[in-house]
Amino acid sequence: MNAVTKKFKVLVRGKNYLIRKAGSSPRKLGFYTTAFVEAANAEQAEAVAVELLRNDSKLRNVSENKASDPPRIKIESIEEIQSFDGCNLPRMGLAFYEEGS
To answer: In this structure, which long-range contacts are made by residues 46-53, counting pairs with CB atoms below 8 Å and at least 24 apart in sequence?
Structure first.
């Protein structure tokens, strides 16, 4: 028998992303995004959301971090929802902000 899957809205915060904007030197940026995932429970939803961001090729390709200073992903909140109706799957866009030095 399959485990019951639930729907979750996961607020994710990315930190320490070294990103170069056109015509400038790289800067440390963070971001927020909301991921919409299916999982058996909140712990699994967290893992699925983190993996979704880690596998995002666009995000990986713009990051210029060295292995000794990797970007970080943190879950800010997890909320079980009834439906994905009206949701931008699998996640919303990235809202970037400049991190302090």
So the answer is: 46/10, 46/75, 46/78, 49/8, 49/10, 49/12, 49/75, 50/12, 50/75, 52/90, 52/91, 53/12, 53/14, 53/91
The answer as to whether 57 is a domain residue is yes
Is 70 exceeded by the pLDDT of residue 21? yes
Counted domains in the chain = 1
For residue 1, the model assigns a pLDDT of: 44
Domain assignment present for residue 1? The answer is: no
pTM of the complete model: 0.86
Domain that holds residue 66: 6-98
